[in-house]
């Protein structure tokens, strides 16, 4: 199905199969896909949940399928501006049980109801003596669903008042089909609510404001890219409409309050996403020198501001691919959350974090599919990187490998002193910024 009120975005699928025979191969053809290429051609498999396996005590989603291919077919897309054929996703599944009920999906689902259930559980189990946890609604969506806003920090104290702490703002699931972003956010929330030393330190230093699901309408209706208005909400941040895009409007309003009323621009902003064409995990950031706008390029910036967090992620997360990170600002991305908040509010560490639907082609996890455990682990490692970013002495990391030499961190108290060391051969490759290097 296309997205609601749309004729486009046929990518997400999630359906039931029943009354099958065991050990008989069944071929599934999804014939109206639109993207020109897919990770289905590079090893990705769909996932399946078996009710019979769950009854036998083995519940969970598993990767399934053989003879998987993604190719152009002969069916025309009538809604395309130019005559263009659809593409087919084909795969073969041999079910282990007869007359089972199975669910097959593009990726691991994470529903709005699931999110609300977890929030309720956390609210009942968190120890208020050590964690300040608050869940409230930032606004009502178009369909009058509440938009959860989660606040996590350490309780108020005379020696560490909340008003003195920096703010970290996290969002996810602006594209409803990117359910992997919700699992990464789930890992982040579990880490922040844990008793680990990194979590304790983060809560004492920061106030976390988290909107874990920006497009619950799209999630509820099974959309892939848009919500009820057939608009990409990640292209509405520069000028959101209060009535058509209430969640974006009020979330941006909360950020504006932090910047202009509290005088506290977020120390880090990160919007969690999923990526359908790349493997691994990576970050998009913002650099003046890589902007399409000449005015931006004329203003020097400090690369350590936006490079340090990706470096730390590379250090902590085996799923992270530093070489895929990009810090360019393209004209077509001006209205995304990452660029809008960097430009309008001066948030230097404004990022989009992308997680693959498929898996990994480097490092410890090379050749493995991504799963729920690893997605949650990515969210946990992001917290570890944030803890180190704010100069936590228990991360005794003297040198973190850097793509152009090494990034040296002084963690012996005081503010981090970052020194970017560039060899002579590397210096000659960047003559335009040689003076800065």
From TrEMBL:
Family classification: Belongs to the peptidase M14 family.
Pfam families: Pepdidase_M14_N, Peptidase_M14
Protein's UniProt name: Peptidase M14 domain-containing protein
Family matches, as PROSITE patterns: PEPTIDASE_M14
A GO molecular function held by the record: metallocarboxypeptidase activity
Residues the record marks as active site: 354
Cofactor(s) annotated in UniProt: Zn(2+)
Highest taxon above the source species: Eukaryota
Peptidase M14 domain segment(s): 108-390
Entry's Gene Ontology BP terms: proteolysis
Protein species of origin: Cryptotermes secundus
């Amino acid at each position: 199905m296309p997205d609601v009120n749309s004729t486009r975005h046929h990518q997400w699928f999630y359906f039931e199969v029943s009354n099958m025979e065991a050990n008989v191969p069944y071929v599934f053809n999804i014939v109206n896909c639109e993207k020109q290429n897919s990770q289905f051609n590079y090893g990705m498999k769909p996932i399946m949940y078996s009710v019979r396996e769950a009854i036998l005590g083995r519940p969970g989603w598993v990767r399934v399928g053989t003879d998987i291919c993604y190719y152009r077919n002969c069916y025309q897309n009538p809604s395309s501006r130019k005559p263009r054929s659809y593409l087919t996703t084909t795969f073969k599944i041999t079910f282990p049980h007869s007359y089972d009920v199975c669910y097959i999906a593009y990726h691991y689902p994470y529903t709005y109801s699931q999110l609300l259930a977890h929030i309720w559980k956390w609210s009942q189990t968190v120890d208020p003596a050590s964690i300040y946890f608050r869940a409230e609604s930032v606004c009502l969506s178009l369909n009058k669903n509440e938009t959860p806003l989660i606040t996590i920090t350490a309780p108020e104290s005379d020696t560490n008042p909340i008003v003195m702490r920096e703010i970290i703002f996290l969002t996810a699931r602006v594209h409803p089909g990117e359910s992997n972003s919700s699992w990464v956010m789930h890992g982040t929330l579990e880490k922040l609510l844990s008793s680990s030393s990194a979590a304790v330190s983060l809560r004492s230093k920061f106030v976390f404001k988290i909107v874990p699901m920006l497009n619950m309408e799209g999630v509820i209706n099974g959309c892939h890219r848009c919500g009820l208005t057939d608009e990409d909400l990640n292209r509405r941040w520069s000028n959101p409409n209060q009535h058509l895009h209430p969640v974006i409007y009020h979330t941006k309003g909360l950020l504006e309050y932090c910047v202009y009323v509290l005088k506290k621009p977020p120390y880090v902003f990160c919007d969690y996403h999923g990526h359908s064409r790349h493997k691994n995990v990576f970050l998009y950031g913002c650099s003046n020198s890589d902007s399409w706008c000449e005015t931006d390029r004329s203003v020097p910036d400090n690369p350590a501001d936006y490079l340090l967090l990706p470096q730390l992620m590379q250090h902590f997360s085996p799923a992270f691919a530093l070489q895929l990170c990009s810090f360019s600002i393209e004209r077509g991305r001006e209205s995304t959350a990452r660029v809008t908040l960097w430009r309008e509010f001066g948030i230097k560490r404004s990022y989009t974090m992308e997680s693959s639907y498929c898996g990994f082609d480097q490092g410890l996890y090379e050749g493995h599919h991504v799963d729920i455990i690893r997605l949650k682990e990515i969210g946990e490692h992001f917290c570890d990187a944030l803890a180190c970013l704010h100069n936590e002495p228990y991360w005794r990391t003297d040198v973190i490998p850097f793509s152009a030499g090494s990034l040296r961190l002084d963690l012996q108290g005081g503010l981090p002193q970052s020194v970017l060391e560039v060899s002579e051969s590397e210096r000659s490759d960047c003559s335009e910024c040689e003076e800065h290097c």
